[in-house]
Specification:
The complex is a heterodimer of chains A (about 280) and B (about 290). With about 280 residues, chain A is mainly α. Chain A has helices at about 5-35, 45, 60-90, 95-110, 115-125, 135-160, 160-170, 175-205, 205-210, 230-240, 245-275, and strands at about 50, 55. Chain A has a two-stranded antiparallel ribbon. Chain B has one domain: MetI-like (MetI-like fold), CATH 1.10.3720.10. The chains are: A mainly alpha (about 280), B mainly alpha (about 290).
Chain lengths: ~280, ~290
């Protein structure tokens, strides 16, 4: 074997090792947190209130807050995001407004979550007088996940073949009828993935929510109540050194949520691809 | 084409939805600058970004230490994360078979999905104690922050580099192989240079993610406001400054935190513009 082949083999081995290391790091993080967290999780952990700042008891109010905040974010970001994507993909004709919209979407995607937090605090909490609440937190998160939903939906809509649209129009359908009956059904798997990805980001987000949703220990009753999400709770438990066991357990629950969401995203795409 | 009256309304409605992204960017810029600029003007730009004395109680707001801290932690993350990410991208685009990439791709997707507070928690429970036991310092350090951020920027670097490597014209590599070059020589001499702009863009995007990351960083870097002399020293980043003190700040102190946000915002805008430029270049090559 000549030296050319030897150096190629060595190089490919290095590349392979780096790739395996990436997966190994993921496995280490997930396994470490799960193995330390699962032993502190029992059914009561999901159903009970926290006792003495979270030193004892469960995280029921925080699961509720997380679901509330995420739902508010999705209820706003999903329709607005999908609507924007339809506009960009179907109605735009390379005009200046479209270029501006696209530039702003990219910009929004790059803005750090702490800036969203500052904005949410000064705009929703103070300026709109919504206070530290589920609503403020959800609205802030909606701004944050909007670009994710717009981008994935737009890409999904663009993959629907042109002849489908032309066929529908040729049959006398209007543009909107074509979008609703032909384009959207064809791009549902991609759009769903985008929405699910946005959900994942919303559930795990901390910096933007801690400044806008507050960190009340009580469960929110309405959207105007403050709430502490699971990620905020994990942060507080760790930084204030309240309870390492509960922190591991909360981190494990968060990871389970994220694993579940990723699994759901992959499954829905597969299921729907089969149907379409 | 049939035009119904509601068609026009729907188009207008969809346009309004699309305008939300624009309005949000405008509102964010407006509100952050409105809150932050007064302090910067009052202290003078040099007094704010050129001084490293941060003592909110006595009215000293110098964020030089945090600017340097953010840059140090980000550079460390790039130095550790980019080689691994690029190697992974080359492997996925050029070498891996379907089965291997079927394991690595979902892994990287999941890596991108793990919340930053969980990374921070992992860093605090594993990386910091490890550094404390084996290296100088107490573990809370630039190095700890860089290690965690290096892991967090991997998905960005891998995904964008991989797609820019894949989009290199196949004729280039066929030509190189036909001239007798090995696959590895082709990768180094032909494919990587052709994918250069996209790879640079992925690194800049990774920088943006690293400099903007908050929770993971404050949990492992120690957050002292002095300028660090070595990678084993603790440090405070711009993001950390905002997140840690926002909870209790009021008046001018709070404005100074918004001003910190203004500086962070400018950093990010600069990196975004740089990315766009490199993506445009990458588009020219294809």
């Amino acid at each position: 074997m000549n030296s050319k082949n030897i150096s190629q083999r060595a190089a490919f081995l290095v590349l392979k090792t780096a790739s395996m290391a990436t997966v190994a790091v993921l496995a280490i993080i997930v396994l470490y947190i799960m193995s330390n967290g699962l032993k502190h999780i029992n059914p009561a952990f999901f159903t009970q209130k926290p006792v003495s700042m979270g030193r004892e008891g469960g995280i029921a109010p925080f699961i509720k807050s997380t679901i509330y905040v995420t739902s508010v974010a999705l209820a706003i970001a999903a329709p607005v995001g999908i609507g924007s994507a339809v506009y960009l993909a179907e109605y735009s004709r390379g005009l200046t407004p479209v270029r501006i919209i696209r530039f702003c979407t990219e910009t929004l995607a790059g803005i750090p979550s702490i800036i969203f937090g500052l904005f949410g605090f000064v705009f929703f909490v103070i300026f709109l007088k919504l206070g530290w609440s589920v609503l403020s937190g959800g609205l802030t998160l909606a701004c944050m996940i909007l670009p994710t939903i717009i981008r994935t939906s737009e890409e999904a809509i663009k993959t629907v073949p042109m002849p489908y649209r032309e066929g529908s129009m040729a049959l006398g359908a209007t543009k909107w009828q074509t979008i609703v009956k032909v384009v959207l059904p064809g791009s549902i798997p991609g759009i769903t993935t985008g929405v699910i990805l946005g959900t994942g980001r919303a559930i795990g987000e901390t910096a933007a929510v801690i400044l806008t949703a507050g960190s009340s220990l009580r469960a929110p009753v309405s959207v105007t109540d403050p709430g502490r999400t699971m990620s905020i709770h994990l942060y507080v438990l760790t930084m204030e050194g309240i309870s390492n066991e509960k922190a591991f357990a909360t981190a494990a629950v968060l990871i389970m949520f994220i694993l579940g969401i990723n699994f759901a995203a992959n499954k829905t795409v597969k299921l729907m691809r089969r149907q379409v | 084409m049939t035009v119904r009256p509601y068609e026009k309304w729907i188009q207008t409605l969809l346009f309004m939805f699309a305008a939300v992204a624009v309005l949000t960017v405008l509102a964010i810029t407006l509100f952050i600058f409105k809150e932050g600029l007064p302090v910067i003007f009052e202290k003078g730009i040099l007094g704010f970004v050129g001084s490293s004395r941060w003592a909110p109680l006595s009215g000293s707001f110098g964020i030089l230490g945090m600017i340097i801290g953010s840059v140090q932690v980000t550079m460390g993350a790039i130095a550790l994360g980019v080689p691994v990410g690029l190697a992974c991208a080359i492997y996925l685009a050029e070498i891996a078979d379907g089965k291997t990439s079927g394991i690595i791709h979902p892994g990287i997707e999941l890596l991108a999905g793990i919340p930053s507070v969980v990374y921070g928690f992992f860093g605090l429970s594993v990386v910091v104690p490890f550094l404390r036991n084996h290296l100088p310092g107490n573990g809370f350090s630039i190095l700890a922050g860089s290690i965690i951020l290096a892991i967090m920027i991997l998905p960005t670097v891998v995904n964008i580099s991989e797609s820019s490597i894949r989009s290199v014209n196949a004729d280039y590599s066929s030509g190189s192989l036909a001239l007798g070059a090995s696959h590895w020589q082709t990768i180094v001499k032909v494919i990587l240079p052709a994918a250069r702009s996209g790879i640079v863009a992925s690194v800049i995007l990774g920088m943006g993610r690293a400099i903007g990351e908050t929770m993971a960083v404050i949990m492992v870097t120690g957050n002292v406001t002095s300028i660090a002399g070595s990678v084993f020293d603790p440090v405070r980043t711009l993001t950390g400054n905002i997140a840690i003190e926002m909870g209790y700040a009021a008046g001018e102190h709070r404005e100074a935190l918004f001003a910190t946000g203004v500086i962070l915002f400018l950093f990010i805008m600069f990196l975004n513009l740089a990315t766009t430029c490199f993506f445009r270049k990458a588009g020219d090559i294809k």
